[in-house]
Amino acid sequence: MTTSTPSQAGRILISGAGITGPVAGYWLAQAGYSVTIVERAPSIRTSGQSIDVRGHALTILQRMGLEGEVRSRTTQEKGLRFIDGKGTTKAEFPVDPNGASFTADIEIQRGDLAEILYDATREKIEYIFNESISRISEDKQGVTLEFTNGLHSRTVDLLVIADGISSRTREIAFPDQPSTVKNLGQWSAWFTIPGIPAGTDDGWARWYNAPKGRMILVRPDTSHKKSRVSLWIMTTPELESALVEAQSPNTKDDQKQQQLWNSFFTDADWSETPHILQAMLSAPDFYAQKVAQVKLPWWSTSSGSVVAVGDAAYCPSPISGMGTTLAITGAYILAGEVARNRPNFSAGVSAYEARMRPFVKTAQELFPGTPRLANPHTDFGIWILHLFLAFFAWTGLARVLGERYSPVADAIELPEYAFSWGFFRGKTATATTTSSAQRRVGEGDGT
User: N or C: fewer beta carbons within 10 Å in the chain?
Assistant: First the structure.
């Protein structure tokens, strides 16, 4: 099989160095493309919350030879407990290896996974930090990009937008698209606190509901001796206005946002609330965002020279548990279809969208009533919630409902593209053997 050099295969620029961008870059570089990743932040962002690695996402990381490293850095979370203000457990749901539970078999901090992917790709990919795209121009020669912080303009064959739910690059590339971000009526704030709060030092996550649609989630990270905390609140028009104003470019200030969130939760009657809020006020990694889905009507421009992937194109929301799976799977399939259809980038992009659309549609179908059902506004509503959860846990119905309403993380066929098949055979020590009956796509292409 002939190996293409990067100059022969083409030039690709990826916007975003989180999870999606490096995975796409890895496989595109493996296929012989010259890949550059541009990242707005000054370095890889090593903060963030726990994320699930399920189904095809794990298979793809296995094919990259990274499963061992990922497993060595998991949070070791045992499951989720719903508690009352005294810390008493009302219902508990342990890890389900099959994925039909809140906690996946592999839970890893987002920053740890980002670091693993960066280390695996930095010798194969050009990374440019503290830079972002300001202008996109398409013509027959490709895509000409201009940048905000002094990087000279570049012309590439394909631009991959992988910079998340709030992607500015997406807004530049698709200015005429209808509103793509669907607000679910909830906001969340995320931060890390040192140590493990009392009652959470046994490896179990704690979910505490307070009236007015509020929730505190504490997820222990025993490997780092820290806790990842998120605050959640169902919004009213007044709350939504205050939260949006706090994040506007003209007024955005982390300390003001932290004070705002402190005011929302100061009367939440869990014994650990004061400790958590005090730690939040000085947390350097604090950030807040609306809970939303991205539903981009089309994922590429008409020329096929610009394409979106991951949260930038189809964020399923953090409450779905499918964001990482969609991101990694989408990145892999995009790279594979581009390589399989070379040198026709437009055909590759179209094939990627055709393969991923059904999977995305399934992953974005949330449990009926989500997220309001899990965030009652009254003490009585919380009592009813705990009653139902205890019943589901005791009877085993939780697993049945999880299997019914949780998107299957391997719900589509995962092709073995030519570039990955050759690499896969050389990594048998770390990869999981797959059925020889699976179809290998584009065996004559790639490297």
Answer: N
Is 266 exposed, middle or buried (CB count within 10 Å of its CB: 0-12, 13-18, 19+)?
A: exposed
Each residue's pLDDT tens digit, 246-289:
887 666 678 889 999 999 999 999 999 999 999 999 999 999 99
For 312, residues 6+ apart whose C-beta sits below 8 A from its C-beta are 16, 20, 161, 162, 163, 164, 165, 167, 169, 170, 294, 296
| pTM > 0.85: yes or no | yes
What is the C-alpha to C-alpha distance for residues 419 and 440, in angstroms, rounded to an integer?
Answer: 10
3-class SS string, 189-205: EEEEEECCCCCCCCCEE
d(CA 231, CA 207): 10
Residue 200: how many other CB atoms lie within 10 Å = 20
Minimal CA–CA distance to 206: which of 375, 92, 321, 76?
92
Identity of the residue numbered 440: R
User: Domains in the chain, start-ordered, CATH in brackets?
Assistant: 6-73+108-180+293-367+407-425 (3.50.50.60)
Q: Both tokens of residue 155? A: 């012309």
Tokens representing residue 34 in the block? 């010259």
Provide the 3-class DSSP secondary structure of residue 361. helix
Residue 342 Cα distances to 4, 28, 331, angstroms: 11, 11, 17
Which of 349, 337, 310, 357 lies closest to 27, judged by CA?
337
Quick: pLDDT tens for 157-193.
Answer: 999 999 999 999 999 999 887 668 999 999 999 999 9
Q: Which pairing describes strands 306-308 and 158-161: parallel, antiparallel, or unpaired? A: parallel
